[in-house]
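for the writeup, i need someone to sanity check this before i put it in the appendix. the sequnce is what the collaborator sent (i think, or maybe the updated version? ugh). structure was predicted straight from it, no edits. if anything looks off just tell me and ill rerun, i have time this weekend
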Amino acid sequence: MSLLTRRQLLSTTSAATAAAACHAWLPGAEPAAAPAVKKVAGVITIYRPFSHADVILGKILEGWEQKGGPGPQLKLSSIYVDQFVSDDMARDISQRFGIPIFSTIEQALTLGGQGIAVDGVVSIGEHGDYPFSEIGQQLYPRRRFFSEIAAAFEKHGRVVPVFNDKHLGPAWADGLWMYQEAQRLRIPLMAGSSLPVGHRLSPDILPMNCDLEAAVGIGYSGLDVYGIHALEFLHWHIERRRGAETGVRWVQALKGDAIWKTVDAGMVRRDLLEAAFAAVPHEPGSDMRKDAEAVLFLYEHHDGFRGAQFMFSCARGTGAALAVRGKPPLVSVFDERTEPKYPHFAYLLKAIERMIHTGRPTYPVERTLLTGGILDRALTSLHAGGVRRETPELAIRYQPADYLFAQHVDLLKTV
């Protein structure tokens, strides 16, 4: 086993790019006999070009590439839209595909009838005009969406699988409530980022139950909006360590000189930080130590494993460097492709499709509950000046699923 070493990454990236141009991004041959199509309700904040609603629900409507080709065995049967924006697509989609737009979430789930009439719900609380909290979280109505979904299930005596885009909440109390409500009603629930299932620069796999000794992640852009992507990507690797997952005992967020004092004191593996930073795209000639906007999310798991997630304004990508016992530093980098139509969302939808057809989450929602909790506590720490927060509420134990990423997933394979 090996992921790319730093030297291998530099020598293989150009070859991998050339190879990608010679092969279709859809693996496999002809699709096998299709299973029954499942009906889905879309519960969304807005529907504009390139919004998450567009690049997720659009693939149900127009195929994996959103060009009219093969797609998931799902049918978008209804939509609830919370906000109609100036460049709204929902009304046009409704007319073109004959999909009703309902004024309440319950109606979207019942198709205006007297019982739950869909087989799954895709809840996308992302984008739109919503307020921010004092710690910098945009307060999307994910809890409200899920509350109304759960209330409809309970009223009509039937539950179906639900996918929640990105982190639960995003505020910790709201995310925890959503998780507990799903447990109470036995709702199959998935959530999270598309990054763990998207393409990577290396197809190599970090094996389950490996002797992982340290991990350092690199992310960029807004701390809340992209911090969850970076943490989810990092935790896909961290949860594959031996004995995982045990939860997190403390979280701290640092900025400025405090970051580099922590690194120089040995709290973060400097070789992993340098390997990760070199591997991800970043501004030419940039010096991470001179990045005035840099932030470090530092946290420790109950088994003593320490995670370090850096957010740099000079970075332009997401990746991680990993120390596996007896191996040189390894790097794993998300390949942020934009064509065809942001394909990482196709692989996210493939995981959603599997859950809706099987009735079981493809991978545990507890990972996203944990990463969302880490992010909330890190932003709280940063707002309070970098104080370390003990986090008994993040003692979240779960067994990770060995679900892989784009290079190992056949979109045309039936569920």
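Residues 4-29 have pLDDT under 50 and may be disordered. The chain is about 30% helix and 15% strand.
thx in advance!!
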